[in-house]
Amino acid sequence: MSGRRSVLKKLGLLAILIGSTAAAPFALRAWTHWRYDKLIYRQPQETPERPVAVVFGALVWPDGRPSDMLADRVRAAVSLYQAGKVGKLLLSGDNRFLDYNEPQAMKEMALKLGVPEDDLVLDYAGRRTYDTCYRARHIFGLEQAVLVTQKFHLDRALFTCRNLGLDAVGFSADLQPYRQVQRSELREIAATALAWWDIKVRHPLPVLGERIEIGLENQPPSGS
Predict the structure, then answer these.
(1) What's the domain range around 84?
(2) What is the pTM of this model?
(3) Of 56, 82, 150, 210, which one has the fewest beta carbons inside 10 Å?
(4) CA 129 to CA 141: how far, in whole Å?
């Protein structure tokens, strides 16, 4: 009888362990949302001034057109620029293949929206959120920034950038309903867990290179 009790106890502990492990990504996602939601702004006039807006890449169609999410990220960043909240846009995305170029698609759209080319900085190695944040701090030398992306992504972006030494606030680029946004929100559960693992345990190095000066001396002062 004692042997059976011992087995049942071990099985119970194993079930608790498995349940806790399975629940951890959901708890981390909830904590990240709670922790960083207060740093997310939705109107340009409410957003603190920062020298640069970091615009995260997203899907570009085979014909070079930005997807709806990416186009709205550029539009949102341009609205901050036009409101005088930022002085430059750092357009960071994936360009690991010759026929796929997120930063160039963002640049072309920003130019059409009236942003001078001198105020557009392209980061061609922003393959992941982690890479964009790391390179913004260590390659482009940013200390403060506004992060521009959709709200479902912003809390993870803020968690990542702020833990990599970038004093960041977020600006929501939700300008319309998006197809399959629920899938993106579900993906954030695993993506947030991976971000935590990268920050706290793995410390991966993205594509690096020489320091790139983007000319911040005449940009708007940081806000509080």
Answers:
(1) 2-202
(2) 0.87
(3) 210
(4) 17
